[in-house]
Structures are given as structure tokens and as C-alpha cells.
Specification:
This protein has about 230 residues and is of the alpha+beta class. The chain has one domain. About 30% of the residues lie in helices and about 35% in strands. The protein has five helices and eleven strands. The protein is elongated, with a radius of gyration of 20 Å. The model has no long low-confidence stretch (mean pLDDT about 85).
């Protein structure tokens, strides 16, 4: 398995902050400015709880409120547009709401590796040596494991990493729902990585695009080593 074999099913950037009280005062002005500068984005709804916009062309959504700014993109063919959008829109919201610090920045990548059968995904997890269940323990409940998964959380001096590996075994859904098999395979492996800052960061100087790119480059260089052992 190579990194290029993985499909980026979803990418998320969440910027959490305290005291975003100006959301209630400046939500409309912020929304108007986003729609003026970035016409690909369309307003969907606003309430006292949150404002939501969508970009159907890019399969993206954006919400912001008193607590956080959240960007999501599904079925990611190219990460560049996500980096551009977060890098352009987040500073605008930060300025309008006068956010001084992010108490947490989280960047989540959910990859899938399609395979011909469920056994291939299980073998990858087993070969990683990250988790291994002896046969004598399996037989307590049955003859074989149908799905295998594990979660590990690791920290360094500045970042928290949560990594989850899960085998995919999707049952047939409703006939009228057509899924893109490239991003929603029936069998395979799901690799879910959440990378989050441990310390507060200055909101006005934080570069979303650079943060995402550093995380992406790190995963390109190291993820397969971790998964395959």
C-alpha cells in the first residue's frame, strides 16, 4: 500500500475559541462580507446557535458561531481548494468577531483504502503490529473476527494525535442511494487521523493553509510507515 492509494474521504479544520460574543452582533455583517468576496459560497441558514454556508461546487461546508469556526470538505480530489478557502475566510471571521486566541486548532483527515474483500483490511491492521488478538481469545466469542480496529492517542510537545484504523465492511444500503465507491468502498480500511494543538495560538497570526499543509506533508511521509509497521 502506498500513500497515493488512499482516498481522502473527508478533511476538517476546527478553530475553537473563547468569548466569541460578537457573533450575535456581527453575524450578518460577517456573512455579507463572505458572500461578497467568495460568490461560490451560498448562505444556508442562520440562528443564534450558528451560521452555515455551503459550497456545492467544492463539496464544502462552513459553520461559525460563538465557540468555533468549522470547515469540512467531503470526497477531496485536491486539498488545495480547502487550504485556500480556510486561509481566506477564517481570517475574515476572526477579524469581524475580534477573536484574539484559538484555544485549540484541530485538523482531521479521514482516508479510505479500498480493497477487494474485508480480509485485506484486517491483514493490514494485523501486520502493523499495532493490535493483535490471539486466536485463543477470539474463540471465546466465535471462530473469527469480522472487523478489526484500534485507536491510539499520541502527544509531542505541541500536538496531540489521535489515530484510528478500522476495517470497512459496508452492507448494501438503500437501492436509491448511490455512493461513490472510490470514497465509500464496500471493503477496505479507514484511517482516521485527528491532529490538534495543545497550546493556545494567536488567532490573527495563525495561518490555516500552512498548518494543513504541514500536517498533510507529515502524513505523506509517515502514515504508511505507521500503518504497515
Amino acid at each position: 500500500m502506498e500513500f497515493s492509494d488512499l482516498r481522502l474521504n473527508r478533511v476538517i479544520l476546527e478553530l475553537r475559541y473563547n468569548e466569541g460574543f460578537l457573533y450575535w452582533d456581527r453575524c450578518g455583517a460577517t456573512l455579507k462580507e463572505i458572500l461578497k468576496r467568495f460568490p461560490e459560497w451560498k448562505w444556508e441558514r442562520t440562528s443564534t446557535e450558528l451560521t452555515r454556508l455551503i459550497n456545492t461546487k467544492r463539496n464544502m461546508e462552513l459553520t461559525f458561531n460563538i465557540n468555533n469556526i468549522l470547515f469540512i470538505q467531503n470526497e477531496v480530489e485536491n486539498l488545495n481548494q480547502f487550504k485556500i478557502s480556510t486561509g481566506e475566510i477564517a481570517p475574515l471571521i476572526v477579524e469581524k468577531l475580534e477573536i484574539e486566541k484559538f484555544r485549540r486548532v484541530g485538523n482531521r483527515f479521514l482516508y479510505v483504502f479500498p480493497s477487494g474483500n474485508v480480509e485485506q483490511g484486517k491483514k493490514i491492521i494485523q501486520k502493523s503490529r499495532a493490535v493483535e488478538i490471539p486466536q485463543e481469545k477470539l474463540v471465546i466469542f466465535g471462530e473469527k473476527a469480522l472487523k478489526t480496529s484500534f485507536v491510539v492517542e499520541i502527544e509531542n510537545e505541541s500536538l496531540h494525535h489521535r489515530i484510528e484504523l478500522t476495517t470497512i465492511w459496508r452492507t448494501n444500503g438503500a437501492e436509491n442511494i448511490k455512493l461513490n465507491e472510490e470514497f465509500y468502498p464496500k471493503y477496505g480500511l479507514r484511517v482516521d487521523i485527528d491532529i490538534a494543538t495543545l497550546n493556545e495560538v494567536g488567532a490573527s497570526t495563525f495561518n490555516c493553509s500552512d498548518f494543513i499543509q504541514r500536517n498533510k506533508q507529515f502524513l505523506e511521509n509517515n502514515l504508511i510507515k505507521f500503518v504497515q509497521g
